[in-house]
Amino acid sequence: MGSTFPVSHSVLRPSALAERVLPRYGLSDVADLSFYQRGFNDTYVAKMSDGETYYVRVYRRGWRTKDDALCELDAIEHLRRKGVPAAYPVASTAGEFLTPVDAPEGERQVAVFVEAAGERLEYGENAVDLCRTYGAAVAAMHNAWDDFTSQHDRFRLDLEHLIDQPLRLVEPMLLSRPERWEYLQRFAAAVRERIARTPALEQGFCHGDLQGWHAHMDEAGTLTFYDFDGGGVGFRAYDLAVFRWSFRFDNEELSRWEPFLEGYRARRDVADVDVEAAPLFVCARHIWHMGAHAGEAAGSGIADLHDAYYERRIGWLKELASDYAIDV
User: Fold this and answer.
1) 73, 89, 223, 301: which sits with the fewest CB atoms below 10 Å from its CB?
2) Cα–Cα distance between 326 and 319 in angstroms, integer?
């Protein structure tokens, strides 16, 4: 009875991070450090006495390997060298970007990031202009990453990551819902086959989560991106399609997609084949998203993964099949 009970996921105490971790980054004068958000990783916000703000990410064990994290940080540092605004990582006084901590579930990695300059994006009356600006900023990121390399291995945004692995995660959730599982399998197979036979799709490092957010804008109209946790080498059409995917929920898909593409093309060429493949990657994003939720169940619970959740998402897939002529 003396051994520690096993845990899937722990929440580290903010005061311990302030006392044991932040001083390694030269950040000792902390006015307040609060647990900010639990997501795929845990995020804390550190307010310093001098008014500066930093964000502390504690990577969830099993979600990202140490090499995954180091490659992500290399990619952001590459943007810094290229002059592309981003929420850059902070190096420790020893020159390291990651600090390991012994959590109850095992070793976890901690990284510290500067705050993205500016304010949260608001898609109001200037939505079209903002979409153009966003597209141009994404193009600048892709331009910068064209010559990016890292000595650290990282998962790829390939069909295994976007479709195959999510299906394996969702399957146990749909054992009691065979009709939905069968439809999901058919839909995924059709999308996978269409992508696999599309020739010459561009590959490169991607942000992976360009939902129209994950950026702040300053008074000069400059966008600063943050949260690169979903990024990796993969289909650039997927990176673009995530933007299109996000606005389906607001019934603004095409009204936002067209100016986004216009802004992107003002800074970078994009082949017709990649634009034409975007709807397929909107479909892949839906599948990936379901898998991400299923994979989080061990740490976040299954309360929200109920019948209505799967009914709604299978309904979305059926709408996609109709809108994009996916033969299911």
Assistant:
1) 301
2) 10
Please say whether the beta carbons of 275 and 281 come within 8 A: no
Kindly write down the DSSP assignment for every residue of 253-272, as one continuous string: HHHHHHHHHHHHHHHS---H
CA distance 143 to 259: 19
SS3 content of the chain, % helix, strand, coil (to 5): 45, 15, 35
Two tokens, residue 110: 């901690």
- φ/ψ of 44, rounded to 5, equals -125, 150
> What string of pLDDT tens digits covers the 328 residues of the chain?
557 788 888 999 999 999 999 999 999 999 999 999 998 999 999 999 999 999 999 999 989 999 999 999 999 999 999 999 999 999 999 999 999 999 999 999 999 999 999 999 999 889 999 999 999 999 999 999 999 999 999 999 999 999 999 999 999 999 999 999 999 999 999 999 999 999 999 999 999 999 988 999 999 999 999 999 999 999 999 999 999 999 998 889 999 999 999 999 999 999 999 999 999 999 999 999 999 999 988 778 888 889 999 999 999 999 999 999 999 9
Instruction: State how far the Cα of 79 lies from the Cα of 228, in Å rounded to an integer.
Output: 12
Query: Is the Cβ–Cβ distance between 185 and 167 less than 8 Å?
Result: yes
CA distance 13 to 18: 9
The one-letter amino acid code at 53 reads: T
Superfamily of domain 23-114: Phosphorylase Kinase; domain 1 (3.30.200.20)
Residue extents of the structural domains in the chain: 23-114, 119-323
Assigned CATH topology for domain 119-323: Aminoglycoside 3'-phosphotransferase; Chain: A, domain 2 (3.90.1200)
